[in-house]
Known about the structure:
The chain has about 230 residues and is an alpha/beta fold. It has a single domain (about 15-230), classed as Rossmann fold (3-Layer(aba) Sandwich), CATH 3.40.50.150. It is about 40% helix and about 15% strand. It has helices at about 15-20, 20-30, 35-45, 65-70, 85-95, 135-145, 165-175, 180-185, 190-210; strands spanning about 50-55, 75-80, 100-105, 120-125, 150-155, 215, 220-230. It has a seven-stranded mixed beta sheet with strand order 3-2-1-4-5-7-6, with helices on both faces. Helix 7 (about 165-175) packs across helix 9 (about 190-210). It holds the Pfam family Methyltransf_11.
Amino acid sequence: MVTPLLQPASLSAPEFYSRLARLYDVLARRGPVVGRLREALVDALDPAPGATVVEFGCGTAANRPYVERALGPEGAYVGVDFSPGVLRVARERGAARGDPGRLVCGDATRPPLRAEAVDACCGAFVAGMLADPAAAVRGWADLVGPGGRIALLDLARTARAGWRALNPAFRLFVRGGSPPGTAQSLGRSPAAVQDERVAAAHRALREACADATYRTLAGGFGRVSAGTVE
């Protein structure tokens, strides 16, 4: 989870998501097809065994088990999120497994990490929440450097025939997951803004990577891109 579309003055974004942290955790781990989407993200990232992988907007670190399985015992997962509440849940879940993990409270657009310590990075359901997702992705590419891997997993409205009938429900889902007042402040549908930002982020990844791949899942609502930075 990262900076949302807009932060109402009455409730900061970290506070908003902290209040919903446990509900978010349930949805993040048990929501429909979510496991398949997370597997697709890690498969696309394809990190080398023993690598250090940073997840931006990690939320309650629902992706952590998938990443760590790919990395093996010598690898390291680092989660970054701006919300103390979701990180608290992530640490509790890790502690219950005997390893609280490396979880950092920070901004995905200003990574609080040393470039030489990062081999790959990823973000799940993040791009639509960033004011300038393309700039963020370019910053992540600079962080991992040439030869580093980047992967994105996002949701946006589908263009697939037979599934477009579900777009209104998806629009309500996006609006319900945004801080109060977001739609009014934007002056248009948060789902439309999310579509634009997801497209911009995935386009920036393609521009930064020599071998970028892209696929859609879950009726076209899920978008996965990955590549090796040039």
